[in-house]
Amino acid sequence: MVQKLLQPGLQGYWRFGHEVTVEIVDTRSKAQVEEALAEHLHQHHCDWVEQYCDGIQIGDDEMGLLYEHEVLMEILSPATRCLYWKNGNPRRIEVLKSSELEVSPELVSLLASSMSRKRSVKGLDSVLIAQIPAWHVGVLKVDGAAQALLLPGLKGYWRVGYDVTVEIVDTRLQALEVGGQEILTRDKVNLRINLSANWRYHDVLMAYEQLSEPVAYLYRELQFALREVVGTRSLDELLENKQVIDELVSKQIRQMTEDFGLEVASLGVKDIILPGDMKAILSQVVEAEKSAQANVIRRREETAATRSLLNTAKVMENNPIALRLKELETLESIAERINQISVYGGLDQVLNGLVQIKG
């Protein structure tokens, strides 16, 4: 049992017939009186409390700020009753109403400054401090419900009696990748499709009032829309017009998201990946189609060449001069490939030897 509070100095006591112990307390590093001892002093030694301690009493609907040498040391919760040893440090208590949710800008700035200097303020976990950067907004949630939209800046809120959170939201255009979606077409071909969408919030508070996770909701709706568009069409339809996927998914997703504060600016299919066996089959089909097209073109050219030769023959048949010119052209073509030509009997003999003209 506590019998006496001893001041600094040399003390002595007889132990005959008594068990005497002295507990030394460093009032500088451990300024707060232990709860059990404080209660004992309040009940049995009120005069000691007044002489050696500073008593602090915070009401049920109040918050307390403890300052030493005008430096904030501790945030005291409602219904706090405690004692601090008098150690020469001047103390003062600032009392606030706990019903107020928002922390004053001056106190937020003070707490943020203390945190940046890595100086611990006891009871700091009773305050939520949020730094909202530029091009972002903060969604203030109290007990899980969205309450307000916060503009960029430093904000602070009391957590006493409330579950307070601030979710930082980027208001700029963002990309969402929907990758590796394996979908069966109408003709039972398994495709793997990768989709990319560019989106933004057009009403952040509306989105968070209706959706717990807006991004997850948008991802799921993109999945559902993609499966519906691909699953109701054949492989040939999709390969002939890939743009139809983008157009139909975009139309459907806008209808699904416009009432939830979300806006899809653009979207597109990045890849359509076919199974290995289907790739081989399509390669054979394409090869056969191209081969058939080449044959058609070849036959068309051969027909045109034959028709041209026929027309030339008809001209030469009725015109000996044209035939003679063709002979000279042929002779010129042959002469270009021969280094030396020996002519016997004159040029007419050479030409008559090449072509026999029957009248």
Automatic annotation (TrEMBL):
Domain of life of the native organism: Bacteria
Membrane topology: Single-pass membrane protein
InterPro entries: Band-7_stomatin-like (IPR043202), Band_7 (IPR001107), Band_7/SPFH_dom_sf (IPR036013), Stomatin_HflK_fam (IPR001972)
Location in or out of the cell: Membrane
Cross-referenced SUPFAM superfamilies: Band 7/SPFH domain
Main location group: membrane
All copies of domain Band, residue ranges: 127-286
Family, similarity comment: Belongs to the band 7/mec-2 family.
The protein's name: Band 7 domain-containing protein
Species in which this protein is naturally found: Xenorhabdus hominickii
Lineage, uppermost ranks: Bacteria, Pseudomonadati, Pseudomonadota, Gammaproteobacteria, Enterobacterales
